[in-house]
Design goal:
The complex is a heterodimer. Chain A is an alpha/beta fold. Chain A has 22 helices and 20 strands. Chain A has three domains: 2-174, Rossmann fold; 192-355, TPP-binding domain (Rossmann fold); 371-548, 3-Layer(aba) Sandwich (Rossmann fold), CATH 3.40.50. The chains are: A alpha/beta, B alpha+beta. Chain A: One of its GO terms (molecular function) is acetolactate synthase activity.
């Protein structure tokens, strides 16, 4: 069937056809026709956020927790600029989003019209692709392609800028799928010859490590299963980036923990001493490699990545396998067949030696709650419920990565690449929309939580029982730590002055507020949070000046890890200071 | 602290793209955003229905950076194909220049003589000036311009290069 419909209507129908359940958005002049088309439409739930950055992060959280694309709808100008942080965040972490922005009418584009901004220009380098649609007849095919681009290959945000007149003008709408020529065809399977080489490298390895990343999560649950199969077959130990946590179960004897700047001693030492590194959907990020010329110096490297441009970007690899993680892992497993892999007992014995260093151990004291202990208890008391954890950015994020443990993909939502404070609360809201019955907790810092704290209202409005667990150290802890370690403790502007009373703030928004001031209240506080059938803020007062260890200082090698605070000198060279 | 730079090579890339709005900004912007160099860039549509354009980019950088440039270009959705001519065996590259020279007497005669040697064609003439059209490899154009400097050079316009693999096959 085909009939004339307005652009706004075509947009809504196209979203429905894509199976969209939720749109995270905020209205304004340039999207009024779309909001009118959404009015009383039962097929799509619109979640009204309190700030457009919240919309983008909520869509990210929804996407990360469900594996489906997140959809954002915001107005032109300030709506689009406010959303941009979340778009950039999704770009860095390869999260599939479709972002619809209103634009001023085509006739006034370029005239500095009211609420005009060059959204296409601004988003060009933080989207996987973007479109300005000037003709309603192009809308259906554009939206269709946008979803395909956002969700296939290396996922990412795709932005569609729709001028107001295009939303109002009409075009033919066909019920069937719009005819378009498919121009985006990412390669999903690796070459057979390369697989054969990979198989013989894996079979010959004496000290292999599987180094996994967010690509395993993005590829879908099958990739995590196949990773486990490959591990079981080879016996190789597994480490993961921040983004990949959950792909491999943290209770496995062969789990090394996270690697990199705040990774475990055993993970970093294993990377340094390995003779073969199989990188699965990770990208040799600077937070992972430490000093490049000292990174895994004596190993062969196989790199599985669907994005060719990730290969050899920072670290030269011996064998690139360009393709989807799940498909390439299946190809490798096929190839391995009954191949005998090496006996790894010597290698594992060395790893056990490194594990003995107990690099995640931390001091406890009578006077204050150790933040790591709070995370540990939070983990122990919630693990049976298979919770979804989001975080903000800072020390608490690293402590969550170190001391909360994950057993399945899509349970861990964090801003890795961009490191965006303010991500965690809206991401938790998005995740809760997708999983209404799950326990969703944002592990937060006292500074980060204030960046999108307005989203408390969103949770209240939609009765989303998200929990925010603040490790309140009264500092921008991670900044304070770097100032202590590299600027001789000159704590310039890193104190969280004038903090609100988080309990009263919770109550003001209709949430429950719980304060934990002493270790003796910790378990009861956590239990109170779990038991409350609604949103809760827990303001957990922790030790104020704890640093996050272990740590590889800027510009240092994996082997130069600081395990504890007493190894810290407090100053570094300008070269080290200049590193990111 | 000093900031160090590494040695670079010149490469000529041809990029076939969908001829859509904003494509040049997308390509040029990718170069600036990632800190790559563009020495020259030319673009024109090459199909009958104007749907596909060919862009020729001259860039320079260390080999691993040039490799990255190619893959970053391939990652853009409207890009169909990227060929590094410099890596793909012998190729020709040509550039067109318009060069205005003003002068009278001996200098004017000399300019015309040099132009003949270079096979530059006068496409506009007044009693005291020429506009020469010259096609060739960029070095040839450079040399011609250098000679014209002493002979009354007024203005130079260059297209930037286009390039193509030698032989019968498409790159
Ligand atoms: C939007 C944004 N601005 C600034 C930063 C830089 N930054 C990184 S961590 C941090 C401090 C975070 O403090 P808090 O949320 O209290 O967490 P803590 O480190 O104390 O656990 C800052 C300012 C950032 N990551 N994101």
């Amino acid at each position: 069937m085909s009939e004339e419909r307005s652009g706004a209507n075509i947009l809504v129908e196209s979203l429905v056809r894509q199976g969209v359940e939720f749109v995270f958005g905020y209205p304004g002049g340039a999207v009024l026709p779309i909001y009118d088309a959404l009015f009383q439409d039962e097929r799509i739930r619109h979640i009204l956020v309190r700030h457009e950055a919240g919309a983008a992060h909520a869509a990210e959280g929804y996407a990360r927790a469900t594996g489906k694309p997140g959809v954002v709808l915001v107005t032109s100008g300030p709506g689009a600029t406010n959303a941009m942080t979340g778009v950039a965040d999704a770009f860095m972490d390869s999260i599939p989003l479709v972002v619809i922005t209103g634009q001023v009418p085509t006739s006034v584009i370029g005239s500095d019209a009211f609420q005009e901004a060059d959204t296409i220009g601004m988003s060009r380098h933080c989207t996987k692709h973007n479109y300005l649609v000037r003709d309603p007849a192009q809308l259906a095919a554009t939206i269709d392609e946008a979803f395909q681009i956002a969700t296939t290959g290396r996922p990412g945000p795709v932005l569609i800028d729709i001028p107001k007149d295009v939303q109002i003008a009409s075009a033919l709408w066909h019920d069937g799928a719009p005819q378009r020529h498919i121009r985006y065809n990412p390669r999903e399977r690796a070459e057979a010859g390369d697989i054969a080489r990979a198989v013989s490298m894996i079979a010959a390895a004496e000290r292999p490590v599987l180094y996994t990343g967010g690509g395993v999560i993005n590829s879908g649950p099958r990739a995590a299963e196949l990773l486990r199969e490959l591990q079981a077959k080879t016996g190789a130990p597994v480490t993961s980036t921040l983004m990949g946590l959950g792909a491999f179960p943290a209770d496995s004897a062969d789990w090394l923990g996270m690697l990199g700047m705040h990774g475990t001693y055993e993970a970093n030492m294993a990377m340094n001493q390995a003779d073969l590194i199989v990188c699965v959907g990770a990208r040799f990020d600077d937070r992972v490699t430490g000093r490049l010329d000292a990174f895994a110096p004596n190993s062969l490297k196989i790199h599985i990545d669907i994005d060719r441009s990730s290969i050899n970007k920072t670290v030269h690899v011996d064998l690139p396998l360009v393709g989807d993680c799940a498909q390439v892992l299946a190809q490798i497993l096929d190839g391995l067949g009954d191949h005998q892999t090496r006996d790894l007992s010597d290698w594992k014995a060395r790893i056990d030696g490194w594990k003995q260093r107990n690099s995640l151990s931390y001091p406890r004291s009578e006077d204050a709650i150790a933040p790591q202990y709070a995370v540990q208890r939070l983990f122990e008391m919630t693990r049976d419920r298979d919770p979804i954890i989001s975080t903000e950015v800072g020390q608490h994020q690293m402590w969550a990565a170190q001391h909360f443990h994950f057993f399945a993909p899509n349970r861990w939502l964090t801003s890795g690449g961009l490191g965006t404070m303010g991500y965690g609360l809206p991401a938790a809201i998005g995740a809760q929309c997708g999983h209404p019955d799950k326990l969703v907790i944002d592990i937060a810092g006292d500074a980060s939580i204030q960046m999108n704290i307005q989203e408390m209202g969103t949770a209240t409005q939609y009765r989303l029982p998200v929990k925010v667990f603040i490790l309140n150290n009264e500092w921008m802890g991670m900044v304070r730590q770097w100032q202590e370690l590299t600027y001789e403790s000159r704590f310039s502007n890193s104190y969280s002055d004038s903090l609100p009373d988080f309990v009263k703030l919770a109550e003001a928004y209709g949430w429950k507020g719980i304060r934990i001031e002493d270790e003796s209240q910790l378990d009861a506080g956590i239990q109170g949070m779990i038991d409350h059938d609604g949103p809760v803020i827990v303001d957990c007062l922790v030790a104020k000046d704890t640093n996050c260890f272990p740590m590889i200082p800027s510009g240092a090698a994996h082997t130069e890890m600081l395990l504890h605070g007493d190894e810290v000198v407090g100053t570094v060279s300008d070269e080290a200071k200049a590193l990111v | 602290m000093k900031i160090t730079q590494s040695a670079s090579e010149r490469h000529v890339l041809t990029v076939t793209v969908d001829n859509e709005a904003g494509i040049l900004a997308r390509i040029a912007g990718m170069f600036t955003a990632r800190g790559y160099n563009i020495d020259s860039l030319t673009v024109a549509d090459i199909t009958e229905n104007h749907s596909v354009s060919r862009i020729t980019i001259v860039t320079n950088g260390p080999p691993e950076v040039v490799d990255q440039i190619r893959h970053q270009l391939e990652r853009l959705i409207p890009v169909h194909k990227v060929v590094d001519l410099t890596e793909n065996g012998p190729y020709v590259e040509r550039e067109l220049a318009l060069i205005k020279v003003a002068g009278t007497g001996e200098k004017r005669v000399e300019a015309l003589r040099v132009a003949e040697i270079f096979r530059a064609r006068p496409v506009d003439t007044t009693t005291e000036s020429f506009v020469f059209e010259l096609t060739g490899a960029p070095q040839k154009i450079d040399s011609f311009i250098a000679l014209m400097r002493d002979l009354g050079l007024v203005e130079v316009g260059r297209t930037g290069i286009v390039g193509m693999i030698r032989g019968a096959t498409e790159a």
